[in-house]
Write a structure and sequence with these properties.
Layout lengths: L1 H17 L8 E2 L11 H11 L5 H17 L6 H9 L8 H17 L8 H8 L8 H20 L6 E7 L7 E6 L2 E7 L7 H28 L7 E2 L6 H15 L4 H25 L4 H9 L1
Parallel strand pairs: 1-3, 2-4
Antiparallel strand pairs: 1-5, 3-4
Helix pairs in contact: 1-2, 2-3, 3-4, 5-10, 7-8, 8-9, 8-10, 10-11
Length: 299
């Protein structure tokens, strides 16, 4: 059942890539197999046919794939139902008490590096982080990876080998950094229209993208290659483990570099901003007007 699910997902991925869509597979933990493209309607039919006999992690993965596929086909389920199907958790946002705690953590971290809380905080923090020319970014990221990789390996016990490539691209997409790959091959793309390069940011994304996602994906590939596993060996951002993987990648500086004040300030500040944006997203989907949501965010 797992193998047949993988064959269908490979065929779907081949179709999306051939037709200019977004890839379905972000990291292939068992590279080598190829599949002829299948269009979305046929993929949906095959996944639905597989679902009654699927169990455990394979069943959950098929449910996530179907929810994402149906969204691509135009279905718009309630936000909570969609997030629960694709990410395995609810979409309720955070209450005022939690936001207050995270806000105070961010303010305190900014104060340590001499940045005042207010409208200019982001700009002042960027200046403190040592802006880099775009041409210097790949080298800065590789230097940070070389420095920080032993810390991550010591914390995780990973012995997996990997090969890193870094590409500069210009893509009409929201992301500034994106990591994908197959087996031991890890590719980091820097989306030039969306990214501002800084020396602190190089350290942050060395931990987040290369070591938080890349080394982890290579480790999962090693595990899948050394014996049978019950999970679908094709990683996708719409699958249930993504929240856990992303959370760890974002939080690595807090565990490994708690005394790096500029880096901790960035992580704490970004955390608060993400929670505010998440609450706004939940409220818009619950029917609150854009004007009211914007007023709440400014407050």
């Amino acid at each position: 059942m797992r193998d047949e699910t993988e064959r269908v997902l490979r065929a779907w991925d081949a179709f999306e890539r051939a037709s200019g869509g977004e890839p379905v597979i972000d990291f292939d933990c068992r590279p080598g197999e190829r599949a002829a493209p299948l269009d979305r309607a046929e993929v949906r039919r095959r996944l639905r046919a597989l679902r009654p006999d699927a169990e455990g992690e394979v069943a959950e993965r098929i449910d996530a794939d179907l929810a994402y596929l149906d969204a691509l086909l135009g279905e718009r389920p309630p936000l909570d139902a969609y997030v629960r199907a694709t990410q395995g958790c609810g979409a309720h946002g955070w209450d005022d008490d939690r936001l207050d705690v995270v806000r105070q953590q961010a303010r305190s971290a900014l104060e340590v590096v001499g940045v005042a809380w207010g409208p200019a905080a982001h700009r002042e923090l960027r200046e403190l982080e040592e802006p880099l020319d775009v041409l210097a970014a790949p080298g800065a990221i590789r230097d940070a990876v070389a420095e920080l990789e032993p810390l991550v390996r010591a914390a995780t016990g990973s012995t997996a080998d990997y090969r890193l490539s870094i590409e500069a691209v210009a893509v009409d997409a929201y992301w500034a950094y994106w990591l994908d790959g197959a087996g031991r091959d890890v590719r980091l793309r820097l989306n030039l229209p969306q990214v501002e390069f800084t020396r602190v940011g190089a350290r942050q994304f060395a931990l987040h993208e290369v070591l938080g996602h890349g080394l982890q994906s290579a480790s999962l590939s090693e595990r899948a290659g050394n014996g049978d596993v019950p999970w679908v060996r094709l990683l996708s951002v719409h699958a249930l483990y993504q929240v856990a993987l992303e959370g760890l990648a974002q939080a690595w500086p807090l565990f490994l570099l708690p005394d790096d004040a500029p880096l901790i300030a960035r992580v704490r500040f970004d955390h608060y901003v993400q929670l505010v944006r998440a609450r706004a997203h939940v409220r818009v989907n619950a029917g609150m007007s854009i004007d009211d949501v914007a007023d709440d965010m400014r407050a």
